[in-house]
Design goal:
The structure holds 2 protein chains of 2 kinds. Chain A is built from 17 helices and 14 strands. Chain A is α+β, with helices and mostly antiparallel strands. Chain A has a single domain (10-400), classed as Cytochrome p450. Chain A starts with 9 loop residues before the first helix and ends with a strand. By secondary structure, chain B is of the alpha+beta class. Chain B is globular and about 30 Å long. Classes of the chains: A alpha+beta, B alpha+beta. Chain A binds chain B through residues 105, 108-109, 111-114, 276, 280, 337-342, 344, 346-348, 350, 354-355, 358, and chain B through 11-15, 17-19, 26-30, 50, 53-57. The complex binds protoporphyrin IX containing FE (HEM). The site of protoporphyrin IX containing FE has 28 residues of chain A, from α5, α13 and α17.
Chain lengths: 402, 64
Amino acid sequence: MDTKPPVKDFATDWDHTDPQWVADPYPIWEELRGRCPVAHTDRYGGGWFPATHAGVSTIAKDTENFTSRTVILGNGRPGDDALPAPIGVAPPITSDPPFHAIARRLLLPAFAPGPINALEPQIRALCQRLLDQLGDHEIVNGGAEYAQYIPPGVIKHMLGFPEDDEDLFREFAHIIVEGVDHPEEQRIEEFAPIEEYFIKQIEDHRENPRDDLTTYLLNVDIAGQKLADEHIFGTMVLTLVAGIDTTWSAIGASLWHLASHPEDLERLVNEPDLMPVAIEEFLRFYAPVTMARLVKHDMEYLGCPMKQDDWILLGFPAANRDPEVFEDADKFIIDRAENRHVAFGLGIHRCAGSNLARLELRVAIEEFIKRYPRFELADPEAVTWAQGQIRGPRNLPIRILD
Amino acid sequence: MRVSIDTEICQGQGRCFSIAPSIFDFDELGNGVVIGDGTLSDETLSLARLAQSNCPEHAIFIEE
Ligand code: HEM
């Protein structure tokens, strides 16, 4: 069991897994912005948390003083066990310049708006299929029965894996999402069946090329060299790790909002043209992703005495609530016209999957409210939010009205 | 009046071409590009400004 001492003061002892932070981090961040824009902790071997948009932005764009070689906060200082820069274990997310640009360049064409927008009919059909399966139950689970299945279904289709492997693929998605903070050895063991299956798919695509992401990765080259199978496998896993939990959380949080704010649900049902701005406000207000960095060397930075290998918790969700940048930052305004939110990060690591994530989020919400124009939380107390660096509702019982 | 994108700053957040597809398009990598020479009329200026005020990277510039 977890026996961490409770946090005494988030300014000097923050912990993003503390129950109070997990349940409702926003008041904590607001207080920190007023008191000490960069909070410190001795937990995790030592780390910093900038609570302002300015702090998050400065660090996200500064690859001279901070490295991405570990983006998930671990239990101690990474020290010598840390992954090598600049390539890292999951390029491009764990890569630093100059290698980062190469690994990213390779992915971007596959995730650009052109190829992604073409997926809309398939995503819509997937959402409709999931809704058909929910049937006319009075209570449906918007997280576990709907939002959760959309991203893996889409990625499976993008990778060009057999339709019949739906259940198997969902199981892999679970292993990947749940194993994020398991120890390395256990993770390798858990990943063995996934690797075996993926390698089989890679071989099949090599023999039978087709129009999908796997074939694209097989054909693409870096400076005249084809990618090694391990690199292809690593990239496939990254699309699962980076794409599933995150998008599921964004869809779930948006459904949670609509289930608990009938006036917003009604507007969205009656004014479908609002959808694009509403999506951006969902992303700002419920930004699900917080990333980490490591301090590269001892320095005084933003007024803080940072030491090499100190953690930085890069709270894009906190930046999105900064009143310096957003008017009425703590209000959800469904038709907010000016919205420079940073849910997808800032600078060179801007989410490579953002076009896909937005499309999935929009179609998932459109189809849900088309099928169920009126719904509410069946049991607000039963809703659980994931802890850690990806925030979103997991158990989300929704009562369908009418 | 002209609008431009600083390609050194743009990271492909994708807001400009969604908000103002008559003024902005995207390239093969998904980064924003200005359609034509970026000349704005009185009618398109406010749309360009709206896109500018939604760019998280502050990569859009308008010369008036
Ligand atoms: C709403 C859903 C999503 C959110 C909020 C989100 C958020 C983010 C954020 C904040 C980053 C920046 C990481 C950093 O600065 O260290 C990132 C990077 C990344 N995301 Fe997403 N993401 C989402 C969905 C997706 C999807 C669907 C995919 C792909 C299938 C994806 C693939 C990636 C990749 C490959 C990177 C690394 C880019 C780089 O380092 O150059 N993400 N994401």
